[in-house]
Amino acid sequence: MIEKVDVDGDTTLGFRISGVVGRDDYKVLVPEVTDVVEKFGKVNLLLDLRDLKWEKVTAWGSDLRFGKEFHGKIERLAVVGDGLLQKLVGDLAKPFYARAAQRFATVEEGREWLAE
Description:
The model has no long low-confidence stretch (mean pLDDT about 90). The longest helix has 15 residues, at about 25-40. The protein has about 120 residues and is an alpha/beta fold. It starts with a strand and ends with a helix. It is built from four helices and seven strands; from the N terminus they run βββαββαβαβα. The protein has one domain: SpoIIaa-like domains (Rossmann fold, 3-Layer(aba) Sandwich), CATH 3.40.50.10600. The strands form two sheets. It has a five-stranded mixed beta sheet, sandwiched between helices. A two-stranded parallel ribbon has the order 3-5.
């Protein structure tokens, strides 16, 4: 499941991603990111992945399209979580999703980095 969470800033969006993510979950993420990019030309993202279990194979196409469409437009991507899956997402974020990406143990640390 992907759900929007409140963060500060016009060009910053936050999402809590939990459980097993499917293709339809991207219907929450993509329109929000598209809206900010159309208004400001860029976006910063906070992804709280602490409760993420996995992503269904059927969602991989949506994930790849998201990365291809927004890679040059995501300025900073803060990945929250310290598990193996979160580490993998954090490691892949910069080459495939964002210009700059970092992994954080807490949401607050991620928010602070995005606000710099």
